[in-house]
Amino acid sequence: MLLIALLVLLGAVAVRGESARAQSYDAEELRFLELINEYRQTNGLDPLLLSDTLSVAAERHSEDMGRYGFVAHDTLASSYYPAGTKFHERMAAEGYAYNTYKAENIAAGLRTAGEVFAGWRDSPGHDANMLDPRHRVIGIGRAYVPGSRHGWYWTTNFGAEADPSVRGRADGALDPADWVQRSAGARELIADGRAHLGGYAAGRDVLQRRVELPGDRPRLSYRVRVAGGEESSGELRVQILNRRGERLATLRAYGAEDAGRVIEEDIGLSRFAGREVVLRFEAVTGEGPAARFVLHRVRVGAPDLESEPQPAEEELIISRD
Length: 321
Known about the structure:
By secondary structure, the chain is an alpha+beta fold. The chain has two domains: 27-171, CATH 3.40.33.10; 176-301, Jelly Rolls (Sandwich), CATH 2.60.120. The chain contains five helices and 15 strands. It has helices at 27-42, 52-68, 87-93, 113-121, 124-130; strands at 49-50, 102-108, 137-144, 152-159, 180-183, 190-191, 194-198, 204-212, 219-227, 235-241, 247-255, 262-268, 276-284, 292-301, 317-320. A hairpin with a 2-residue loop joins β6 (190-191) and β7. It is elongated and about 65 Å long. The termini are close together. Residues 1-22 and 304-321 have low confidence and may be disordered.
């Protein structure tokens, strides 16, 4: 493991690069984030925050490895960096220039998050990077390069300093700072990383935020649990609005008939691709017993590439510093 802590950088401040602003993630990258954070929490460690800045460096290195035919931490050839660039230099080039501990894992020949996580977990050096208690952020980059030797390439970058590009809670929890909350019950809707809507009579709760959708087949995923009895009333509506607050679509609606269910949703948003929209969750309840809706793991990003062709060779190559 190579950890970088250069004394000459004691006063350095990371600047978020332009390339990090539009960073999006496919379902396997987000699944890897869940796996590594579940693993860390099982081992008594804090979850990692997802850094767009580090993810840009990771994704570009994965692309370079496939495009130029190498699997190594040092850049052999690149569309983005000078030949010979070290992993911590790539991180700095994208804006992560903190004087702190840094590490990198790479892999080739595996498509899914579960496969690459298992490979790294079973390799002592990679496992040490994933369980390093000093790390606070992670960048994840998975690339499929048609015609390359191994097809799929993965890079994860780790750092001990949270930069401005981090995306709220890395374990899928909701961050109150990211959402506009309105409640007729005059209460905070987000607690312990989950949103609690409804649950009281004659109520109206609204949770919404602006999102810039990726240009390539964007998707919305979330988990909702519906609580209440047979006599409960209420409905949770999931809507897309324009920037003026006008409703463009109602994506889903849940009611008391869903009580006792935990529902995992994955919804295509291709008709709104490339647009800035408002994502809104609105719960309305009537008089008497009210249904309650618990919302978790809300994510907007690019799709899983299930339709991508598989590489002919399923060789696993994993390497780490």
